[in-house]
User: Fold Variable surface lipoprotein from Mycoplasmopsis bovis.
Amino acid sequence: MKKSKFLILGSIASSSLLMIAASCDVKKKDVETSNSEKQDSKTNSQSNSGNQGSRPDSESNSGNQGSRPDSESNSEKQDSKTNSQSNSGNQGSRPDSESNSGNQGSKINSQSNSGNQGSRPDSESNSGNQGSKTDSESNSENQDSKTNSQSNSGNQGSKTDSESNSENQDSKTNSQSNSGNQGSRPDSESNSENQDSKTDGSRHESTTPSESTQNDIPTENYKIDDYLNRVKTYGKEANLLITLLAGAWTENYDELQKKYASLWPIVTEFFKLHEKIVSKFDEIKKEIEEFFGKPESKNNKLDNLLKQYEKSRDEIKDAIEVLKRLQKK
Assistant:
């Protein structure tokens, strides 16, 4: 009886050891499968993060496919996502919204991966999910390639449109610049014509002063000669008056000096000029020329003397006649 009990206990112990060993193997397999799933999810998240730099649309699709176990729901949601992708492809001019959707897709991928890892305790569910993932991944890859090609074609279409628009704008700007240049040409021509006319006018103006100066030269010479002649004439008269008065030793000498006292200052000035004309004609001529060249330097002295003499000339002539008559007596 004791032996049979020991045998029964031994068989029970051996069977329990076998059960424990089998359960340990199952747990090891579960741990290995969970670790492999974690590594797969990490590689998926890494591939997703790598693709996020260049393909924001495909990231959102693969992230959503990873969180859905069956291929049918993935295909339906992928169709809806392709529509959203096409819409986002049409919205090629909105990089901010695309980057935001890409960031949201990456967040959903990480959440769906963590959710999938937490919801797979046994190896069978993991293997089933992995099988569905492979199918969905193949579908997602095919659809991603299609959507990428479509988005690329859409982008190319938008590029061609933008290029054509830019070409049209370039042609417009070229035509506008050409028209602007054509519009500016007649203005420049008119400006050149105006400048030519101005230069002609300036030439005429430049010639007219020279002509006026040439015309002024003889008039100036005439004035100088006129002044010289007047100085000579008035100087002779003054010299004659003083000579007659000096020779008239008569009883009326004192009376004549008193009578013509106002004439003596101007008469003596021209008497001196007459002596200079006789002895130093060139010096008198130079003074007269300087008077015309620089009137302010001489302070119009000669001109004033001539004017004063002309005012008193009649009296000077009368005095000369009186002295001549007295001399005859």
